[in-house]
Design goal:
Helix content: 25-40%
Largest sheet: 6 strands, parallel
Strand order of the largest sheet: 1-4-3-2-5-6
Number of domains: 2
Bound molecules: adenosine monophosphate
Oligomer: single chain
Structural class: alpha/beta
Number of strands: 10
CATH topology of the largest domain: Rossmann fold
Order of helices and strands: EHEHEHHEHHHHEHEHHEEEE
Strand content: 15-25%
Length: 303
């Protein structure tokens, strides 16, 4: 396992390792947890060379306080990445990815970037994400790049960008890793007090309860389900930003609740902004509707 800090070192190290088989890439912002580890392990199982980047990308933060407070633990991250199977960890300074005079942005337009996170964090958020991911993909040149379903919208936006730019990379989306009580792992969870962590459970619980109500036919329309989700978030002690029921490919709001659905939400708990989502398949309306979550470990539904 080696660590590189410059783009020149990165290119040289990837060039030396290429040829043995597929190159896998896992971009992260560090403070690595079991969610990141699952992506690295998946890359390890499918690729000959596994590259992990750790870079807190300033251009995707709409809130300077959030950027300042973002947890940083580079030394520990290198050890965690190595233990999960990384061959190479890229730890760039901002100037490596944003060179002096930097004037280029990669922008995905339309509902994919303007809805949900884009609507609440501002369009600049995804411009920052796609710009840095495009630069990283260009530097690493991976065959496969691994993203978490935890950031479902981000994975869709990156896939769209890779297709549109004709990048020769497969975007692989991996399931959300959760704590035993359902809380989706996030680097931001480290900033929650024990009491706030309890309130943070309202995200996975609201998603689970909403999915259950859709599954058993108590909720049959997207707007109705979104309202119920917002109420459940607030009742659980979070300050909701949004709760949406959308088409998982286009992110357009769902009408009648049938077929493939994505339930997505964002809420604040204290100073910490959290997001979560859940995929759901509703086969059809019958007297006894059936539904199944597509996640390996669905959040526990609220009672
Ligand atoms: P981040 O460091 O938060 O930018 O995340 C880096 C990658 O890890 C992204 O593709 C995230 O979607 C993914 N990720 C973050 N949290 C989780 C989780 N709980 N389960 C699975 N993947 C995750």
């Amino acid at each position: 396992m080696s660590t590189v800090r410059t783009t020149a070192e990165l290119r040289a190290a990837v060039a030396a390792g290429r040829g043995a088989g597929p190159v896998g890439f896992v971009p992260t912002m560090g403070a690595l947890h079991a969610g990141h580890e699952s992506l690295i392990r998946r890359a390890r199982s499918e690729c000959a060379l596994v590259v992990v980047s750790v870079f807190v990308n300033p251009t995707q933060f709409d809130d300077p306080a959030d950027l300042d407070a973002y947890p940083r633990s580079a030394e520990r991250d290198v050890a965690v990445a190595a233990a999960a199977g990384a061959d190479l960890v890229f730890l760039p300074e901002a100037g490596e990815l944003y060179p002096p005079g930097d004037a280029t942005r990669v922008v995905v337009r339309g509902p994919l970037t303007e809805s949900l996170e884009g609507a609440h964090r501002g369009a600049g958020h995804f411009d920052g994400v796609t710009t840095v991911v495009a630069r990283l993909l260009n530097l690493v040149g991976p065959d496969r790049a691994y993203f978490g379903a935890k950031d479902a919208q981000q994975a869709l936006v990156v896939r769209r960008m890779a297709r549109d730019l004709r990048l020769p990379v497969e975007i692989v989306t991996c399931p959300t890793v959760r704590d035993a009580d359902g809380l989706a792992l996030s680097s931001r969870n480290a900033r929650l007090s024990p009491a706030e962590r309890e309130r943070a459970l309202s995200l996975s619980r609201a998603l689970g309860a909403c999915a259950e109500a859709i599954a058993d036919g108590r909720l049959r329309h997207g707007a109705e389900a979104a309202d119920a989700g917002l109420r459940a978030l607030a009742a659980g002690g979070a300050e909701p930003e949004y709760f949406a029921v959308v088409d998982p490919e286009t992110l357009e709001p769902a009408g009648p609740l049938e077929g493939e659905l994505l339930l997505a939400c964002a809420a604040r708990v204290g100073d910490v902004r959290l997001i979560d989502n859940l995929s759901l398949t509703v086969p059809q309306f019958t007297d006894e509707p059936e539904a199944a979550t597509r996640e390996d470990r669905a959040p526990t539904a609220a009672t």
